[in-house]
Amino acid sequence: MKIYVKKYSGELVPFEPQKLKHSLSKSEASEEEVEKVFQRIQPRLYDGISTRELYELAFDLLKNHRDSYAARYSLKKALRDLGPEGFYFEKWIGKLFANGGYQTITGKTVQGHAVTHEIDVIATKGDTMLAIECKFRNDVDAKISVTTPMYFLSRVKDIKGLSFSFFETSQQFTDGWLVTNAYLTTDSIRFGEYYKLNMLAWDYPAKNNIKNKVDNLALYPVTCLTNLNSMEKSLLLKNGCILVRDLVENPDYLQYLQTATHQKKRILIEAQELIHSLVTEEI
């Protein structure tokens, strides 16, 4: 019998075993562990199962093997947990570019040729200064329509050719980046590629998208950690702990959490396991 999965939008799509196995393997679980999880999921499948139920089932089974497996698997949700307004998503994007050697600052207003603009993230390195527009979405299947890159292109045009002082130096914006935790519509991609816009989304570009960057660079947001509850995640974010790496490098962040010592130790162990394959790469 063919099984269909119900997406968050209500759309029914055929269940694809290989697609599920591939997503499970991204947790860095071994082939044997992935197969064990998959075999335990199969008997619990039914026609019309929701993607949310399927995700929660896989998450719990991975966590039974190792906390860090579930943490990697939960990346997409963890990015949504940087909301609800996206303030911490901007902070996280700043960290992403900082990993590439940029100096970054968030939430600055500049005067363009015609109007003022609030720039979500400004990043500088050498003679390069980037204006980064962050489009945060809470919806699981949200897509950025073509009007967004159109609007962004006009904003970049309005601030180019003017000098601004950041990081004790006067520079001009050399380029812009449109970044989102969501998806891009086909028209958005077509428009962006035609006008050579730098765009970064959950699954775009194909080989260097947000998902791949995070896995390759171990730049996991602290909201990935499965041993933290929602309040604890908020406390860490509020106190400047944006990355799991921040917590590993400075365990003193745990002092903000009102939890038992043994639980703090478990949180730190999960964090250390999660970034064990840390590498460096430029954006």
Model description:
This protein is of the alpha/beta class and 283 residues long. The protein contains twelve helices and twelve strands.
Question: How would you summarize this macromolecular structure in one to three sentences?
Answer:
The chain is an alpha/beta fold and 283 residues long. Helices cover 42% and strands 20% of the residues.
| Count of strand segments | 12
Global structural class: alpha/beta
Stretches where pLDDT is under 50 for at least 5 consecutive residues are: 277-283
Radius of gyration: 20 Å
> In terms of quaternary structure, what is this?
single chain
Helix percentage: 40-55%
Q: How much strand content do the residues show?
A: 15-25%
Largest sheet: 5 strands, mixed
Total of DSSP H or I helical runs spanning 4+ residues: 12
Overall pLDDT confidence: 94
Major β-sheet strand ordering? 4-5-6-10-12
Could you give the order of the helices and strands?
EEHHEHHHHEEEEHEEEEHEHHHH
Distance between the termini: 45 Å
* Overall geometry: globular
Please specify the SSE layout and strand pairing:
Blueprint: E1 4-6, E2 12-14, H1 17-25, H2 31-41, E3 49-50, H3 51-65, H4 67-73, H5 75-80, H6 87-98, E4 103-111, E5 116-125, E6 128-135, E7 143-144, H7 147-159, E8 163-166, E9 169-172, E10 175-180, E11 183-184, H8 186-194, E12 198-200, H9 210-217, H10 230-238, H11 244-249, H12 261-274
Parallel strand pairs: 1-3, 6-10, 7-11, 10-12
Antiparallel strand pairs: 1-2, 4-5, 5-6, 8-9
Helix pairs in contact: 1-2, 2-3, 3-4, 4-12
